[in-house]
Amino acid sequence: MQNKLINILRIFFILILLVLGLLTAFRPAGTETNILKALFSDSENVLVDLSTRFSSKINVIVESSSPEKSEEISKTFYSKVDKDKIHIVNADILNILNTYEKYSDNLLSSRTHYLLVSKQYEKVEENSLESLYNPTMQPIGSIEDDPFLFLTDFVMNLSENGGNSDFTPFEYEGKYYSLVMLTVNDDVALSPTVVNDEIRMLKDIAEELSTDDVRVYLTGAPVHSYYASNRSIFEINFICILSTLFIIGLVFWYFNSLLPLIPIAISIGIGIFTGYAVTSLFFRDIHILTFVFSTTLIGICVDYLLHYFVSYRGKDTIKEIFKSLSVSLLTTVSAFAILFFANFILLKQISVFTITGLVTVYSIVVLFLPLFNFKNFENKRSFKSLKISKKMRNIILCSVFVIALFGLVRTKFDDNIKNMYVPPKFLINAEKLFGELVQSNGDLSIFVVKGDNIQDILQKEEKITDKLTEQGIDFQSLSKYVPSEKRQKENRDLKRDLYTVKLNEYAEFLPPAQRQKLIKKSYGNQFLTLGDDFVFLKNNFLIDENTSIIIAYNYNGNEIDGVKAVNFQKDISAQIRKYRLICLSLLIPIFGFLYILLAKIYDYKSALVITLPSLCAVIFVIGLLGLFGFSINLFHVLAIFLIIGFGLDYSVFRFAGAEKFADAVLMSCLTSVFLFTLLAFAGFKLISSLGTVLALGLLSSYLFSIMLIDKKDDFEVNND
User: Fold this and answer.
1) HEC readout, 263-322
2) 58-95 in b/e burial notation, b at 16+ Cβ within 10 A?
3) Which CATH class name applies to 1-55+229-380?
4) pLDDT band at 163 (very low <50, low <70, confident <90, very high)
5) Looking at residue 537, what DSSP letter applies?
6) Residues near 448 by Cβ (< 8 Å), separated by ≥ 6?
7) Residues whose CB falls within 8 Å of the CB of residue 9, separated by 6 or more in sequence, listed in order
8) Which residues contact 490 (CB under 8 A, 6 or more apart)?
């Protein structure tokens, strides 16, 4: 009856593999490279939508010692761009200026509007005189019709923090720069692979056009994604190669044969395949960092196989290790399952991918390995016991306690999202240069404004931007370029009041008749509207016909008129802090859950003995980080859950029989610690944080299991 059930399970397992293979063939998952999408799911609508909008922007900076060369190279660069995939929204500057001149009576900059509303006429007069007698600035429009140069002030105010994207060169610190603002087409932006191919082409164009006199820089979220994904792919391959070589060397050294590598390679390959296939069923796109982290399957899954081969005594071997193997799987899966409930898409994917891979390899070991005769896998070497005296044990444990105590006192936390991704230095410098050129090197906040129609949106924007102007906050908004009709009427009235009070005194350079004409002027009923000349504004500021955005620079407030300011760095960091606190609050419950689970399987005293090494390892690692001044982030905390799950494996197998499982436990520890040590050097700090803590934590768990689980067969390495 038992054999019949096992055969049914084997057939069922094979059918699942076939179904997953077909589903994967017909519905392969895409690869996501957007860093922010590694952290937040689509349920975080505002953050995700805004990040997606801004992540399609690519900025090209052309630097040269001459303005002509800068403009020439920027135009040459754009001529080589694939316009079907990446485009620039050309603002027809000449037509726009003509339109502004036509409606000049209706236009005031936000700064001047504020001064006129507050009756600060002297300040308005002072600003106007500065513009009038500025030899480097050509007035826009007619001075006779606009003596205060309000139109010039309006147009000049638009360029603040905006930059130039029409190839026009401008001087900055002795060099000339032209900016080309590119946008990835919506259909292309949905395919990270295609975007990366386009960035690669842009990078090649930039390198081709760069000379001793010209430098071309690329910035923007797609550029960061390109370099991050390329580095991640390199790290995946590098880690896989080193891990594979390490396992090959360890297996060959221990078994004096490479034959065990065949079932190990097949099992791990199937485990990684099923992990990918099941993850692709849950998620449309799999993040590149999921693949990076999931290479740890090589180190984790090999544990089950090593335990089988090291313990091999014939086809009945599985009966001897089944309980310990199953408890090990149960505790590890429980630790990974916690990640699925974190509101981070990356961690959910890692959870699904790894749990599926672990269950797959476990199933292969339990269901299929007993079908084969491995009698030729003879152990040629072994790890023998190193006796640690009780006195030495106490000294070590006291030292660890002191380190942990001092370290815990110094523990500090870091929830800043910026510290979790460190781009290449040349990209940091390019982003800094771009920020200086467009004067936007501070924090960026976004107000999402909703309205019934375009006029309602513009009026709501103006209420917010008026408050920003009062606080001296620079901003960009749709209403800054095209005021609402209500605001345009108000601007006329403000001008009329100013002319009545100040024009005769201020504009003595105009004939009296012209001054009277301006004071008594009838403005009519024509208004500037969002016409065809302003398509670029719609693309930049309108999310849809009822929603616009205001971009504020260095704004530290929360909300204005009920509209919340979304600050990517602050809001994401706040979310990370929230999840870190939640995870910390789960540590005691998860230890409690695992203790109860083990108590049901064994007994309450045995459960305490098994969980104690992992608990000590967690305290020790946190203390060690604090002692050396490392700030603990969310991903350090999440690594603790994995330490609990993996570390319990060592305790479970040692408790089951130190002599029987000693070599397998040590080899499992070596493979896992080696894998996570490699991850500690990953370029993406989210992964390196996990790798660092896991490497330290698992090594500590292993050592504590030796010291705290008192078996007569405690062991050490034998050097023969």
Assistant:
1) HHHHHHHHHHHHHHHHHHHHCCEEEHHHHHHHCCHHHHHHHHHHHHHHCCCCCCHHHHHH
2) bbbbbbbeebebbbbbbeebbeebeeebbbbeebeeee
3) mainly alpha
4) very low
5) H
6) 46, 50, 543, 547, 548, 549, 563, 564, 566
7) 363, 367
8) 113
What's residue 172's pLDDT? 86
Domain boundaries defined on the chain: 1-55+229-380
pLDDT of residue 384: 60
Distance CA 25, CA 19 (A): 10
Q: What is the pLDDT of residues 624-664, one digit of tens each?
A: 888 888 888 887 887 887 788 778 888 888 887 656 667 77
In the Cβ-directed half-sphere of 490, how many Cα atoms lie within 13 Å?
Answer: 15
In the chain, how many H helices and how many E strands? Answer: 28, 13
How far CA 496 is from CA of 115, 116, 374, 665, in Å, comes to 14, 11, 98, 87
The predicted structure's pLDDT at residue 714: 41
Most confident among 289-293, 524-528, 641-645, 711-715 (mean pLDDT): 524-528
Q: For residues 432 and 438, what is the distance between their CA atoms, to the nearest angstrom?
A: 10
Q: For position 16, what pLDDT does the model report?
A: 92
**Across 417-426, average pLDDT:** 78
AA letter at 666: L
For residue 597, which amino acid is it?
L
CA distance 572 to 569: 5
564, β-bridge pairs: 559
Measure CA 702 to chain center. 33
